[in-house]
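tool_call: predict_structure(chain=1)
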Amino acid sequence: MVSYGMAKARAMANRADWNERTEITKAVITWVDDEYDLEIENEYRMDDAEFTDWVEKNAESLAKADAEENGTTFEEIDRIAFKEDYIDDDALFDEAYEAACEFEWESMTGR
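tool_result:
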């Protein structure tokens, strides 16, 4: 098993943009009536293109459902804004390293 420090050093050496990349984490759909906003989280961590396509395709139905639920009126979408945040490569590495350690431990113990 490679030590945590060695594995992380290797991972960082293979990425010139460590902790510098961004991803779309949220979409904010605003419709004309009442200037009301609906925030959609990218909870399944879709890639940027997939998430923006999904939001743009479903924006009207999502806004209509939200307007009905909140007792407002929906006529048309005013705008869709996407919010970006930095990808935490350290956290992603930690998750992957823990999973690899768990797999190796289970393999060694026959679980």
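agent: The CA atoms of residues 7 and 101 lie 12 Å apart. Proceeding to next step.
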